[in-house]
Structures are given as C-alpha cells and as structure tokens.
Amino acid sequence: MTQHSPSPALSVAMSVYNGERFLAPAIQSVLDQTLGDFEFLILDDGSTDSSRAIIEEFAKRDARIKPILRENRGLVASLNQLLGTATAPIVARMDADDICHPERFAKQIAFLAAHPDHGVVGSWSEDIDEHDRPWPTAGVDHALTNEEMQAVAARGGQLLVHPAVMYRKDIVLGVGGYHAAFRHCEDYDLWLRLASETKMANLPERLLRYRHYAEQVSKKYVTEQTVGAAIAHEAWRAREAGKPDPTAELETLPPVDQLDALFGEAGVASRVRARVARGILHSPTALRDEGFEILLQHIGDGGDREGLWRTALRLLRFGEPARALRLSAALAAA
C-alpha cells in the first residue's frame, strides 16, 4: 500500500455523485502522478450507484486516499467541505469523469513555487468523449497570463477549466470559497472574485483530458449555468466600480426580472438576458426550458437578433415546431 505523508505538499479535492462510469480511471490518473506527495480527498455526495464502493476499494490500496462518505448536499457544499478538510496549503481540483496528465501536479506546483504572487494556475485541456475519443470543439484555448485573463474577465469570457485548476487554499478561503447562489457556475463566480485578489495564469499544455457526454451537469443545466454566469459578471462589474456586491450573501439567485432592483441599476436584467440569448442558441436543452422565454424577452427588449432566424430553423430540427413559430413571430414583430 502507498503510504500517506503526514504533511503533504498538496491536497487533491474530488467530489463524486453517481460517477461510477468514469470514476476508476479518474482516480487512477491522480494516483499515477509523477508528484506523489499529496493527500487525495474524495467526497462521495450521497451516490446511489457503486461510486462509494469504488472509492473504498481504491482507499484500501493507497493510504493517500481519504474518503469522505455522507448524504447528498450538492456540489457547492461538497467543494467547500473539501476546502475546509484539506491539510495542505495548495489544493488541486479534479472531477470524477476527467483524466489527469501524469505530470500535471508537478508542473502546476512548480509554477506556483516560482510565482508566489499567483494564487491560481490552470492549464489547457484536451477534449474527449465518453469513449476517450477526441471531441471536436470550436472554442479557443484559455488565456495564459494574468494580464490576458483580466481582459477576458472584462468581456465576460471563460478563464479556467475548473478540474484543471490548482490554487492556494488560504486565498480561496479568504474570498469566501464557493458561493451557494451560483449553482452550476460556482467556479466562474469564484474566478471573478479571485481576479481582484490575486494573479492567475494557465499553463499552455494540455494537462487534463476533459470529458464530454450527454449526462454531465454542463449539458443538463445550460440555462441555469448561463444565467448564473451572466449575473456573476454583473457582480464583477459592480465590484470593479467600487460598489458592494449584492450577490455576496445570497443563497439563491433571484429571477432575471428582479436584477435591476437587486443591483440598484437599470439595464442589468437586459444585459443578462442578452448574454443568455447568445449562450443558449445551440443547446436543445436550453431552448426547451426557461431559456426559450428569456430569449423571447431579449427580443422584446430590442436586443441583438443576429443568428436568431437560424435558431428558429434549429428548433424545427429539434422537433419543436411550436417554439419555432413563436420565435419567428417574435422576430417578425421586432
């Protein structure tokens, strides 16, 4: 059995909920790291599949694994519990469906050692599907330097791949950890809050194989995730303007229509709807749920309609002729 260091250099934080399908290779990729001085915290968030048994079996073979087994409380509560449990000054995030490059930890911890002014370091990722095959993506790689990331933050772009991140625990705890209100985009909200407190960077290497499949959270909750990210960016704008963050103490986010009142500023709800409209145009899930109503409100606001006629055609392909007709009528009226 691999022994556990009493004072590890690194704490690895993984939350699992019904992750049996990809869990074993995810765990093994952590255990196979060239940097071995870590504790591996694996929190089972009330799984009803065989995830708990898989974790316990790995823990028998490697003493670095510290299982945390409890009832379901959700991802944000799990991430904050992992932060509070970690004994090392540096924490590496990892998800239960991705795969680490063997040198990921060594390269990231070396970067933080060489850059004490940086509190967060991520990396580029390699996108794969459920069968480990390449996943085609039209997205661009994340920014590398702190200066580039600040510019990306200003325009509301993505900053880091959450399961590829390593950060200094005290800095993350110092900004309050993950905020419960931003369910399904809790990482993006955290990066924006950290952007004002520390420097961040990405390594230009694909140190994580990021998995895409139909059942993952980012596919199932597109509208909630996109709305939350838009509100997180509005909170960033408020902080940058020297105003208090009205989301800081929230447990849940209010409906979009109430955002002007929450922020004390006209136009916030309209900006959020515009961002959501741009973000859901290719998502069958979002165009079938409340995201569609937000899209119609965006048109009613007089918002940008570029590409929306194509979205009406897309709705027909999705088997939603009634929604295609409603969208076409709204565009024609506008």
Automatic annotation (TrEMBL):
Alphabetical list of Pfam families matching this protein: Glycos_transf_2 (PF00535)
> Which species is this UniProt entry from?
Aurantiacibacter sediminis
Report the residue ranges that make up the Glycosyltransferase 2-like domain in this protein: 11-172
Q: Kindly provide the name given to this protein in its UniProt entry.
A: Glycosyltransferase
